[in-house]
Amino acid sequence: ETGVTQSPTHLIKTRGQQVTLRCSSQSGHNTVSWYQQALGQGPQFIFQYYREEENGRGNFPPRFSGLQFPNYSSELNVNALELDDSALYLCASSRQGLVDNEQFFGPGTRLTVL
Amino acid sequence: GDSVTQMEGPVTLSEEAFLTINCTYTATGYPSLFWYVQYPGEGLQLLLKATKADDKGSNKGFEATYRKETTSFHLEKGSVQVSDSAVYFCALSESRDDKIIFGKGTRLHILP
Fold first, then answer.
1. B11-14 and B106-111 beta bridge pairing
2. What is the pLDDT of residues B10-38, one digit of tens each?
3. Under the phi-then-psi rule, with left for phi > 0, alpha for psi from -120 to 50, and beta for the rest, what region is B76?
4. Under DSSP, is residue A81 helix (H, G, I), strand (E, B) or coil?
5. Is B71:B24 a contact under the CB 8 Å cutoff?
6. Which of A36, A26, A41 shows the shortest CA–CA distance to B105?
7. Is the predicted pLDDT of residue B41 greater than 90, yes or no?
8. B98 touches chain A (CB under 8 A)
């Protein structure tokens, strides 16, 4: 069983640029959630995708957007990057409808904005 | 809104010492409670969970009991090992398919 994978591992961008992060969900999972983890902080929920639709959103501006594809993989896009966007971005996959619906996390993408 | 508060770190202990990491929560409903662990260079792993009051979650020698009356979910281990060195996050989720709300994390260092 393949776990959650994310790419790239590390990324360096400059202010104002745009970035796309990718996540492949675990086999059998249909839901992907994205979290932002700033240095020294706990992860914060960005949004969740289920059946290719946004299914809940945290307190993040519209320049954070996402997609989910028919194979349940997902992308996180961030436009007009700001210095404060520097963080570890985690995705988690799960399967909605299960009694024991655990979210499994990927290793993350470390984004640095200069 | 919902929130999780956990003790500040870092926490430094000697091997075989007793560990407690305090966690309290604020929630409007009856959330599920979790402890996640993040080892250096790795993603988050679920350590244990409890879904209703008085439930005890346990794994790898760690335990935590869901205390509704004190809104707490303290993590304990009777004898820590060097390999337990990591960052520990207390977290909650209001429903099975809902977002997870995390505390700020507690870094644990175990000295040999």
1. parallel
2. 999 999 999 999 999 999 888 999 999 99
3. beta
4. coil
5. yes
6. A41
7. no
8. yes
Length of chain A: 114
The span from the CA of B33 to the CA of B75, in Å, is: 11
pLDDT band at A99 (very low <50, low <70, confident <90, very high): low
Cα A75 from Cα A98, distance rounded (Å): 24
Question: Which residue of B42, B99, B102 to mutate against A (max A Cβ within 10 Å)?
Answer: B99
3-state secondary structure of B39: coil
Instruction: Show residues of chain A in contact with B3, CB under 8 Å.
Output: none
Partner-chain contact B43 A56, CB within 8 Å:
no
CA-to-CA separations, A60 to A44, A49, A76, B32, in angstroms, rounded:
10, 15, 12, 24
Determine whether the interchain pair B96/A101 forms a contact, defined as Cβ–Cβ distance below 8 Å: yes
What is the residue type of A25?
S
Q: Is B82 helix (H, G, I), strand (E, B) or coil?
A: helix
The predicted-structure confidence for A54-87, as pLDDT tens digits, reads as follows 999 999 999 999 999 999 999 999 999 999 999 9
